Amino acid sequence: MTKEYPIYLAGSWVTSDERIDITNPYTGDIVGTTYLASVAQVEEAIVAAESAFQVMKSTPVYDRVAVLNGLARKMREHRDAIARMITLEAGKPIRDAEVEADRGVFTVETAAEEAKRISGEVMPLDLLPSSKGRFGITRRFPVGPVSGISPFNFPLNLALHKLAPALAAGCPIVLKPASRDPLVMLMIAEMLDGLGLPEGAVSILPMNREVGDILVEDDRFKLLSFTGSPDVGWAMKTRAGRKKVVLELGGNAGVVVDNDADLDFAAQRVRVGAFAYAGQVCISVQRVFVHEDVYDTFKERLIAETKKIVYGDPLDRATDLGPMIDDKAAARSEGWIRDAVQAGATVLTGGVAEGRFMQPTIIENAAKEAFVCSREAFAPLVTLFPVKSFKEGIESVNDSVYGLQAGIFTNNLERALYAFEHVEAGGVVLNDIPTYRIDHMPYGGVKDSGLSREGLRYAIEDMTEMRLLVVNRLESQRVM
Q1: How far apart are CA 101 and CA 399, in angstroms?
Q2: Does residue 334 have an active-site annotation?
Q3: Least packed by Cβ within 10 Å: which of 101, 386, 422, 426?
Q4: Percent above pLDDT 70 for the chain
């Protein structure tokens, strides 16, 4: 019998009139059944969040730390069950799902540590005679209720990057997990329940896009944190009103391979960066610019590495590549590759969709305006280009509306520093792929790739406001 997962509304487990089945992308079997929240239920969650904020804004740090550490402990105890659920509902290979489960624990633990370090400063103000006897104290205060919208590709960890810093900062949160794979976050809600949070501190509510617009537009939320596609994210910002907005969006991540790079290592890492989780990663490697001196050698090695990929059942520990999230995603990817070929590109390997499986695909000679180069493909495909110089490679990476992260393979210090100074992206990863991320680092993009930064400390800064206290020492102004 299919297990039912009620949704978590302000500390209570509820259902709605709109029931949805969550299916396994590999088998098509029903993993579990849950519900989409109604407009009235979202309203109830917002009212409860406002009430909870009156408690949470004065909650001592040790209580916030205790809740986060309690959640991390439960997540560690249920790590295998969490990973299995990610695999079942998202189709992520089990080894990758286990990494996500471990990262989730790390994310929550790091939020607990950062909660202890929300600090201010004492600053002198007596820099002019008119400010004699004055000094300032700054302190950070929680902004208020937060709305979070997370995507399907990291159903645990990207959602936790909204929930954990909110709790660390003292902000209640209403979280919309992806409706394709919400069950793992409902498992997290079970672990949160009973840890001592006030009612309304957390609501985890799957909902359709129309109902989800409330999270964007309602002014009772003081911050919107969205992870997803650039087109959707920037449209949300225009409707968000006066609230703070944090956008962690996608891109067409670029890599430069210099003529002195370790080509074996670069090929191995580009394979991982391009094809992990079927390319459904916002920092998936999509464009690789290789110095013409080593282009042919690198191309051969990347093809050889790609042909080693094992794809099949995501629960099989031998599987490297699982299915895409649905049939539409695979068919769409195949169509983009076909369009690129018609415009003159060559497919070196792959290029064909087999049901929900998209063969890992390497393309060369694609037009730079082709979708596979110019937009976010979110698919297991990578495009190769020879460049005449390292500088041309950097310029080619920058020739994009996106700028999330970039990878640079070089052993030349001056070129590495040149890349750091000239790459137009939120992060530059030296001698590794742009797909690298650890959860405490500042993470986010420029241009169409986003606004502000995630990473626990940086998210907490967005979820708090600085307030200044000016102290006037009256005795210092009196004649002694």
Answers
A1: 35
A2: no
A3: 422
A4: 99
Instruction: Residue count of the chain, please give it.
Output: 480
Q: Which of 44, 98, 248, 454 is catalytic?
A: 248
Q: What is the mean pLDDT of the chain?
A: 97
Active-site position among 114, 282, 305, 454: 282
Q: Tell me how far CA of residue 301 lies from CA of 270, 296, 306, 362, in angstroms.
A: 10, 9, 9, 12
Domain ranges of the chain: 7-249+449-467, 254-430
Pick the CATH number of 7-249+449-467 from 3.10.450.50, 3.75.10.10, 3.40.50.20, 3.40.605.10: 3.40.605.10
Q: What kind and span of H or E run contains 362?
A: strand 361-364
Read off the tokens for 337.
């590759």
Residue 3 has a pLDDT of 93
Burial label for 55, CB within 10 Å (0-12, 13-18, 19+), is middle
Structure confidence at residue 478 (pLDDT): 63
* Residue in 50, 68, 6, 2 with CA at minimum distance from that of residue 30: 2
Q: What is the pLDDT of residues 125-157, one digit of tens each?
A: 999 999 999 999 999 999 999 999 999 999 999
Residue 477 pLDDT greater than 90, yes or no: no
- For the question of residue 248 being annotated catalytic, the response is yes
Q: Which numeric CATH code is attached to 254-430? A: 3.40.309.10
